[in-house]
What we know:
The complex is a heterodimer of chains A (206) and B (535). Chain A is an all-alpha fold and 206 residues long. Chain A has eight helices and no strands.
Amino acid sequence: MEKTETAHAVHTRDIEGAKMGMWVFLFTEMLLFGGLFLLYSVYRSKYSAEFHGSAAELDIVLGTLNTVILLTSSLTMVLSISALRKGHRGLSSLFQGMTILLAIIFLVNKYLEWSTHIHHGIYPDSPALLAMERGQIIFFSLYYVMTGIHGLHVLIGAGVIAGTLVFTTQGKLGPDNFVMLENTGLYWHFVDIIWIYLFPLFYLIV
Amino acid sequence: MNARENSPHSVSFYDDSGRYRGLFSWLFTTDHKRIGILYLISVLSFFAVGVTLGLLMRLNLIDPGRFISERTYNSLFTVHGVIQIFLFIIPAIPTTLGNFFLPLLIGARDVAFPRINLLSWWLFILGGLIVVLSIFTGGGAPDTGWTFYAPYSIRTASNVSLALFGVFILGFSSILTGLNFVTTIHRLRAPGMKWFRMPLFVWSLYATAWTQILATPILAIAVLLLVLERSFGIGFFDPTKGGDPILFEHLFWIYSHPAVYIMILPAMGVVTEIFPVFARKTVFGYKAIAFSSLAIAFFGYLVWGHHMFTSGMSDTSRIIFSLITFLVAVPSGVKVFNWIATLYKGSIEVYSPLLFSLAFIFLFSIGGLTGLINGTLSLNLYIHGTYFIVAHFHYTMFGGAGFGFFAGLHYWFPKMFGRMYNERAARTACFIMFIGFNILYFSMFILGLQGMPRRYFQYLPQFRTNHIISTIGSWIFVAGLLLMFGNLIWSLRKGKKAPGNPWGGKTLEWQVPSPPPRENFEEIPVITHGPYRFD
């Protein structure tokens, strides 16, 4: 009795399983940021006046621009998945490239924003910051840490999309095998959603 | 595809296959059984380091200052804690016995993500080595205690950042294992293996895996913030900059209390497999045991505040945390009574796995019941930060999770290695360890009630007798450990060849040869009934 097919059974793809693993992973990411949101809410209630004042110093135009950029990148990500499912590898690669480009623009904006603050002497443990109110110290530290860890996720996301872009052009990803791109998309939307929360918490609630 | 791979079921998983031979075929394996063995070797190596550090601590406490300096002692209890918790007791059962047996128990060929499984082992080794490296480099070994409480962990010049970075990576490894197990249990059960036909060890791994997934990220962010605090002075936990050190304690225990259940739940699962087999009787209250695992995991989330009764918290929160802590005892009690009821009127055969399991029940019960004393608000204020706490968590973690691990090791050793060990030596070792353990740690309960604070290098003369008793216990215990591992290691080569099913178990892993073939099952089994049918 030969059972050769069972040896192959290991290598068949379980798309449902792969997606489930990704969702569980995103859940852990959410909890990671959850710890930061917890700190934010505690300190916001403790230092509401200082938070109020400090938030006014952030550049709402740059913040809004970045929100638009990240939302657009989510759109191009979805379009790249649709294109791949329909078999248009070239179009999918184009949209993936656009997503990476938007991610880079987002990070450049963030860099400009950070360097303005740093130029004014406001960064964690700086003499100018330590001279401020305690609530302001905490506000700016939270701002740097939360947007920093988020920016790191944007960077990682862009790197992963660069990987799927290579796989797409090499033909390793295609209409029969797009779960990797779909999971990358899930991750990208997650990064987007975190920003959707960070934006009002730091820029809008003044 | 070559000729060998055409009949994978006839080849033991110990025979190399695939691209590499020898060592590399192990280091780059994606076989869950080989990864289980890799984890076993790594976890036991770290355990040896942790035990050695513990022995040195006990040695100091016979005559403080004679063998070891104050600074070294602080590092000893810190690194002992970090290694035993993050590198031994948390990964001990899920990554070794869990990796090896989860797919076998549910009738699968591997876990859902074999490559991620290998990645998690590599991350484990990387994180572990970084933790070990932190002992020898920078400002010296960390001296904060394994809890890394701020603000001291911000101020100390010792190598806390590197150790925290290691813990961060270990967290990644733990999350990936949990993620893998949850997906495996959902997706890869054999046909007919309904949820309530799964062996109860699988249920406990399932509850554990969710806890790993839901709790570990909080530890990750807590230690990451501490590293940022030390490198950039962000001030979240620094009162001089408007931060609050108590918030670090909250974040730390939001992970570290559920982590206690990451440690104990798999051990409960192991003994639940063992009792029916050696009582030749189906398990009593299958669903109650399955649900109690989930209940322990659930309530485990809501009790972290009981570590902080003296840290500064409102009375309302303290009363609520105390109340929910008592609730955890209910599902734990359900399990203990079900194990006893499984043994009741069974035709019991006493072999070493059962002896270790009985030791588990005894030691875990003492640990659990003293947990209720700790959870009582008024008593906690009296015993907080004393040796009573040290005794309590060693009874639950080491007496509980540790003995559960040893029970599982003796139960599944023939399956994993295809050899039997010397039964008499195993029983003797179990007996010596049980005696040594109680001498070592029960004296700490008394020391704690007398008022001996934990983590102190020096003590008043009235504590001397019990400290000496405890240290003598540590020697007896380690003698038992050496005998146990010596027996197992000797048996790897010299033991008798193990049959496929030496204990007469009914679960799926006993239906394949020992050691299991590379693809686990010749044909994926179809399940028609529950796991413990002894007719």
